[in-house]
Amino acid sequence: MSWRPQYRSSKFRNVYGKAASREHCFDGVPITKNVHDNHFCAVNARFLAIVTESAGGGSFLVIPLEQTGRIEPNYPKVCGHQGNVLDIKWNPFIENIIASCSEDTSVRIWEIPEGGLKRNMTEAVLELYGHSRRVGLVEWHPTTNNILFSAGYDYKVLIWNLDIGEPVKMIDCHTDVILCMSFNTDGSLLATTCKDKKLRVVEPRSGRVLQEANCKNHRVNRVVFLGSTKRLLTTGVSRWNTRQIALWDQEDLSMPLIEEEIDGLSGLLFPFYDADTHMLYLAGKGDGNIRYYEIGSEKPYLSYLMEFRSPAPQKGLGVMPKHGLDVSACEVFRFYKLITLKGLIEPISMIVPRRSETYQEDIYPMTPGTEPALTPDEWLSGVNRDPILMSLKEGYKRTSKIVFKAPVREKKSVVVNGIDLLENVPPRTENELLRMFFRQQDEIRRLKDELSQKDIRIRQLQLELKNLRNSPKNN
């Protein structure tokens, strides 16, 4: 019977995406129109945060998850930045602490009050200055409390110890803007993609580049570690300008294990990996599709499962942590989709169809919880430790008892590795120079328009004065 087709046995081959009904969405949100390639959204088990469009400075909304429906136009915002907010991330161990970075070169830590905001928040609990250009990315360390990574347009990655409020390490191996950062399971390795078309695996405490790939045929945009499999997955563009994914061995980046073309669309592909189910999700920016695959340990490594389709294009996607999912509905993943045209945030649940309503142990293994495995001093001294696992069956609603205490410090010059970060400014990129040129051209045009309007007004006044002098009453 060798003619029979070979079928793969998988408990996830029938996973389907279910969009929430309108009353369970967040409506009337002025989602930012910024074209920066980030998600502009962060979510945890209690709050949803979205970067919003605002005039003068940058702001984002923080909404309790139960407060669905229409959001009032005057809803309180976090609005302390002087420039556009480019990225936001929730602390994985303290649910009311969120980090943001901005075009104003700062990284800020905010403490959201219990129950959400009642009025605009302008004062951060901690302001971090170390970058000399705008800051495009922030990432929390996956196993260590109060360690934050930030990547700026000065081509540097700074490692912040929030216990002291200072940068303690600097990674200075990039020659252009850093596009993406991803940690392995225990946070001992950092993978980065860069505008110089290189994929790097870095030891973060020393800043040493362990592996480097020069991706000329596969221009990398995003990278994600595939759990503890010692593999990386990147999304990018092929030499024929088609969207493409590539799988790499983290210990040998000389050649990708596989490359696979996805489609001919132009939007960025965002990868999301679920280490518990070994499922990979690919979501396209500017389209409404979410494809999902199962990752295997043997060739062909990637097995296509299904695709969630929607006519509404997505600007970005927030992802709910595992302990915030509804295990009674067999939900294994949840996205929060930003639909800019409608001002809508739409939850999309990935569900494994099961008839039984009891807890399904096979699809919910032990997962990283809300307790840190290390203190900042332990991690900085060279200790690595796997995340502390928790069961989603018992006590998965348990909240962490850790409290964030901001250090008291004064603003001063920031010296790391003997270099003053605020003084050591790299040369401006071509794109930055072009933006400056166009801004100056716009300002010149605006001033010319103002002058012409004033000239017209002066001529009108002169004519009125002449008419008054020549009028019969004055004679």
Main pleated sheet: 6 strands, mixed
CATH class of the largest domain: Mainly Beta
Distance between the termini: 117 Å
Mean pLDDT score: 87
The CATH architecture of the largest domain: 7 Propeller
How does the overall form come out from the CA principal axes? globular
Helix content: under 10%
The CATH H-level homologous superfamily of the largest domain: YVTN repeat-like/Quinoprotein amine dehydrogenase
Please work out how many helical segments DSSP would assign.
2
For the record, the count of structural domains works out to 2
Structural class given helices, strands, pairing?
mainly beta
- Ranges where pLDDT stays below 50 over 5 or more residues in a row are 1-6
The name of the CATH topology of the largest domain is Methylamine Dehydrogenase, Chain H
Number of strand elements: 34
Radius of gyration: 26 Å
Proportion of strand residues? 35-45%
GO molecular function: actin filament binding
Coiled coil: 444-471
Domain DUF1899: 5-69
WD repeats: 78-120, 128-170, 171-212
